[in-house]
Amino acid sequence: MLKALIVGASGYAGAQLAYYLSKHPQVEIAALTVSGNSLDAGKLISDYDLYPQLKGVVDLPLIATSDYSSIIENVDIVFLATEHVVSHDLAPYFLDKGCIVFDLSGAFRVNLADFYTQYYGFTHQYKHWLDKAVYGLAEWNDNAIKNAQLIAVPGCYPTAAQLPLKPMITEGLLDPAYWPVINAISGVSGAGRKASLKNHFCEVSIHAYSLFAHRHQPEIAYHLDQQVIFTPHLGNFKRGIHATITCRVKQGVIADDILNALNKYYKNKPLVRIYQKDWPSLKSVEGLPYCDIGFVLKDDHLIMISVEDNLLKGAAAQAMQCMNIRFGFNETTSLI
Amino acid sequence: MLKALIVGASGYAGAQLAYYLSKHPQVEIAALTVSGNSLDAGKLISDYDLYPQLKGVVDLPLIATSDYSSIIENVDIVFLATEHVVSHDLAPYFLDKGCIVFDLSGAFRVNLADFYTQYYGFTHQYKHWLDKAVYGLAEWNDNAIKNAQLIAVPGCYPTAAQLPLKPMITEGLLDPAYWPVINAISGVSGAGRKASLKNHFCEVSIHAYSLFAHRHQPEIAYHLDQQVIFTPHLGNFKRGIHATITCRVKQGVIADDILNALNKYYKNKPLVRIYQKDWPSLKSVEGLPYCDIGFVLKDDHLIMISVEDNLLKGAAAQAMQCMNIRFGFNETTSLI
Amino acid sequence: MLKALIVGASGYAGAQLAYYLSKHPQVEIAALTVSGNSLDAGKLISDYDLYPQLKGVVDLPLIATSDYSSIIENVDIVFLATEHVVSHDLAPYFLDKGCIVFDLSGAFRVNLADFYTQYYGFTHQYKHWLDKAVYGLAEWNDNAIKNAQLIAVPGCYPTAAQLPLKPMITEGLLDPAYWPVINAISGVSGAGRKASLKNHFCEVSIHAYSLFAHRHQPEIAYHLDQQVIFTPHLGNFKRGIHATITCRVKQGVIADDILNALNKYYKNKPLVRIYQKDWPSLKSVEGLPYCDIGFVLKDDHLIMISVEDNLLKGAAAQAMQCMNIRFGFNETTSLI
Amino acid sequence: MLKALIVGASGYAGAQLAYYLSKHPQVEIAALTVSGNSLDAGKLISDYDLYPQLKGVVDLPLIATSDYSSIIENVDIVFLATEHVVSHDLAPYFLDKGCIVFDLSGAFRVNLADFYTQYYGFTHQYKHWLDKAVYGLAEWNDNAIKNAQLIAVPGCYPTAAQLPLKPMITEGLLDPAYWPVINAISGVSGAGRKASLKNHFCEVSIHAYSLFAHRHQPEIAYHLDQQVIFTPHLGNFKRGIHATITCRVKQGVIADDILNALNKYYKNKPLVRIYQKDWPSLKSVEGLPYCDIGFVLKDDHLIMISVEDNLLKGAAAQAMQCMNIRFGFNETTSLI
């Protein structure tokens, strides 16, 4: 059995990783840790105030530590379900120890000068690791993932935006002068478990945020190599992302071209489901590790719909999928 | 006191109209009617199975009738909160009797040959009334409303789409080659009170519908005189519309131009509220008769956000506002 | 025009009071204040981050102050929508200045030695005001309210519990050996606007809390003069209280006795609505100032159902109702 | 591999059974059937209009049939996820063919004369099967289940009520003169997938129903051998049951007695989880096959809280658990 450490295990993605690992036949949990000043330190992850869902399933304590020397001994795999700056600071330590690191934050996703200064508010100190990091969009980078030591797992919006668009762009079906308009709506869990007025039950309401200013816009554009207009919205639901993507195809492109492009890249990918007719609803994927994609073409206007569970294909399930790929396990082990 | 008849009073818009009229100092309810085969016939509108909210407020019976001859005697005003084809059939009767008719359906909104055949599935029989009907987008057509006998009150999506876009287009700020992309999400009440799997509590989920095929797309394009891409979505909430509109301005247009255009048309309009910074959330207007509008401009990309309560500014409140305008009452009487 | 000060105007009840006062023909807002260290200080109450619903309706600033000497000059009425201990500390100041004070906290509701020490964690310093305070259960204490200077407005659970039970107990219909079992479920707004994990959108779930230990249990028992078992629950909705009360009637009591008792006390009370058959749902009162009551009797078992909007009849509307009674206005002015 | 037929597979419980069977290593799906006039006939269960969640997981068609002769050939196991009267009519057919039948309806749960006439509106025709049926409350009747041919799986309310109360009553801890007061709130899925105004998204609201008149009251009382007051409520959520049970213990009973009784019967039962302190929330069990139980004792008043997912431990998971017990598989196979 390989041994995996989950750093930031009290968050939504971290707890989900713990659940997945509890069912994994080839990997077991080495330890669950939380930040040094966490009020959850010492509690079981299945405690009443945390994840009672896990009672009897994962009853391990959350260890508060900033010193991993006693824990790291037998750890093969590290999941960083931490804030961006924490991942940035911690990842090199685990990498230098030889661990395979799956980072769920944005700290190693975009290899551009000034990107972190501009969008994340810190100056990146580990250019060599940024160079080596593999972007964990699992359906596209599986070969690179197999040989990577550091996998930067993309989050919810970038996954929901790229999976439908990447086949279109790769196959040259879109008119690049018309920037795709990506309107996405996310469940409240996307903002994490920390209490704030923004996620107060009575304050949550449908609204757009970070217009023209969300850090996922440049991440999406960078990995698609295509400018986009990305408008995130908060929805009044717990989990899930629904993305509506409006774009313009090149003259002569027909619906079969779209479907063929999707099938070309996803036909044998178990966690992407293509709708030949109709298109998915959010409920199709709640609690499930899939990204579902549908589309309609009219004249040269194309609307693509993609949905995923933001905590699963948009976070923990994709990290687990990357781990399965990295170690040669079945891609969906513990996921379905 | 003027006397108003509400036809279709058991629906969400009809019941809301009844509530508004109960508070109106110059207009009173003549009768509430429902279709002949309604199971609600004879019940009080405030019955336990209907609108217990109205208990002690409006305790009138719902009269099932297809013969209005005994009712019409003293009626000055008719609200048709009915299916499109019912409004189409009934409106001329009331108009011929001299009533002022406010139709909340789509039956008289678009004066185009073939429009009703193509989008509503019936052939329009009353071209002369279609010619005379005034489109009740209250902030724009108040002068025409004052002299109209038939007011075709626009519904939720068209109101949420047109109120932000109309000043832009009227002032010539948009590049018409780039069709505005209107993504709107509506509460479930938008589909009415009739039970169906689509509004089953456990089946409702965020999803797009009628891609490139919704009848409100040509209505919006007709009244804006601008092609648009309109994508409606169903949301998991009861009331409200949130619209995110992405468009392209002409070169040189700056944010002040946008704000000036909004202020020019809405500064003195009490039911449209302009956000100078930030932009509205759905909760800003739930249960309220306003349409709230905000925007952000970046380079030549403009995103406008508009929100309204689909049953109020998107239906009953706008109908009441039109009535107030028509009879010279204060525009907001009984509404705020 | 009388002038009213709202202390704690940034909370849910305070903002609702501001809305009611904006519509009141005989009372106007003197000032809105918040606690000294509030992040909301200086913002308009209708600010985007606060109550954009009030934009154009109440656009007054929230004044942070601990010194009311400059504000109190022309103030006739004070609403304390504040934490219990804040009300306890502030009320005497305003009372000594001659203001009529409506306290929405629990600081003056129960005139029992040790009650505040035991249930609220502070020792009450103002026994003489506790003696003079009138409990603002409006339907029962209207005569006393008319002459009171300090009205302790009961909150959501006590109102929902007492309004149905008080006629039963007053008329001697219940077997007192069987303690009424009061199961009530409250919307999340009942816990206020302060962010915490307990009201995090993703953490909210149906659950019972404070079993046998809620401070409203002794308040209810004290004012009913009857021991009760009170079990509060949190629900996954924003507003409202639904109470299911199971009790035992004395031998020979029949359904007509129950209905007669309810009618005896509430027939002429506009904000209590009695169901002769059926019983109310939560939706009957959302956003409305009523308490609705229904019941079923079988043999000697009686179940009563009462519902109210926790922020209205359970807080702001009842405070406003008390104010209307105190000053001889129509009981429902600005409320319906 | 054993072969299982699911009758009524288009309902919520039936679809869940199909999902469970898709993961079961020792049992496979023989066929999925629906009633003869179903609009879903011929569709895949994973169709867009049905359960797109199952796309790629269970892509079998729903067969509309009233003649099972061609299907029954190789069927070992039959799940009846059907209306009560349909189960009543169909079960004997499958039993006579030698199948092991798990009936999720109420048709064979209570072996009392007149019970079905009074509470279900039909006269029971199969007294000999009623005599042989084993009540599938899995934690209590496992020995009988192992040898049964017909297992009458209890539904959501009876399971949530009996699991906490049965140890109390069996150990003689309660004062039987005080009928336990069972207040339970159920998600909307409890009423099934058929569209009606009662489950219209905009009509759903917290409310009590069937006061003193729900058919589960006598079922609970019969199997507990104790009169109870059972008050069901509808909640504004999709899945889950939360039960609050207020009862009276005999003099001298202490908290340890309660805990010991729970542990005595459930310590080795993997699908019942006991809270030693605190008590469960609904979210503890959403999507999970557990019944979670907690309690607080004060003096001689005992409040027990139990929660379960109404479609899982309250339906499909308990049926699957019974199947596992019946055939000697691990009790939780395919469930956790």
TrEMBL record, chains A, B, C, D:
Pfam families in the record: Semialdhyde_dh, Semialdhyde_dhC_1
Task: Cite the active-site annotation.
Answer: 156
Question: One MF term from GO for this chain?
Answer: NAD binding
Annotated signal peptide: none
Lineage of the organism:
Bacteria, Pseudomonadati, Pseudomonadota, Gammaproteobacteria, Orbales
Q: Which GO terms describe its biological process?
A: L-arginine biosynthetic process
Q: Where is the Semialdehyde dehydrogenase NAD-binding domain?
A: 3-148
Please give the Gene3D superfamilies that the UniProt record associates with this protein: Dihydrodipicolinate Reductase, domain 2 (3.30.360.10), NAD(P)-binding Rossmann-like Domain (3.40.50.720)
What organism does the record attribute this protein to? Frischella perrara
Where it mainly occurs, coarsely classed, is cytoplasm
Keywords on record: Amino-acid biosynthesis, Arginine biosynthesis, Cytoplasm, NADP, Oxidoreductase
The protein, known as: N-acetyl-gamma-glutamyl-phosphate reductase
Out of the domains of life, which is the source? Bacteria
This molecule's function is given as: Catalyzes the NADPH-dependent reduction of N-acetyl-5-glutamyl phosphate to yield N-acetyl-L-glutamate 5-semialdehyde.
